[in-house]
Fold this sequence. Notes:
Blueprint: E1 9-12, H1 20-32, E2 37-42, E3 45-50, H2 68-80, E4 86-89, H3 101-108, E5 112-115, E6 119-123, E7 131-133, H4 141-149, E8 154-158, H5 170-180, E9 184-188, E10 191-195, E11 202-205, H6 210-220, E12 227-230, H7 242-248
Parallel strand pairs: 7-8, 11-12
Antiparallel strand pairs: 1-3, 2-3, 4-6, 5-6, 8-10, 9-10
Amino acid sequence: ALPLCDSDSEIRLTTPLQSAAYVDMTRNTLQLFGAEIVVESESGLLRYYIKGKQKLHFPSVQVVDGDWSNAAFWLTAGAIQKNQAITVTGLNTNSIQGDKEIIRILNESGAETSETVSSIIVSCGTMSEFDVNMEKIPDLLPILAVRAALGNGTYHFHHAERLRLKESDRLASTTAMLRALGGKVDEYPDELYVYGGQLTGGTVDAQNDHRLVMAAAIAALRCTEPVTILGAEAVNKSYPSFFADYTALGGKCTEIS
């Protein structure tokens, strides 16, 4: 809104910026419409200067990136199932979205991936250990924790204190999800250690968190027993057709009223 105000504006951060890619996405979109925003840094803190009374223009055609945050669930589904590759289309590998890091993390932990002009194909490969800084990619924690719980060895998620401020306290709720499904995890104030093995199944309280719903559903693909998700309607926040797509890909789910 600030480029359209009558006077100039300034946004000053009082703490270091976390999840910076989301701000970068906003700035990039504004720039596509002609807005000018000046960014400066002083003592490690960012300041944004936005001139008022700017005139925005509207491109006749604008291609919108596919959603890497939601695609991460399907990409990880391919990375946890032997002999069951999954193809995801519509993703821009040059996107500035932070969550495109999912491909690098899956690759480095042994998943097999390949790319075409319009799609990414992921299959299981090996399931090696990883150590991930979550500061810039907090939304990936629930699904990467599922990958870890089904892997081999010890997996470390750190710089994750911001996750306590999401739809749920995602450090606590991800820990509860994995333990409810038979996994082993240690929770600390700003980090998780997840220990690979096998998930058995059980009942997960999604705590009104859409990413917990999707993570638990993907985990069910490798559980030995059924998974019940309480509050699964939270998925409507970001992906209302998730369970339709889940079923179309061969997943089995039943709604319990």
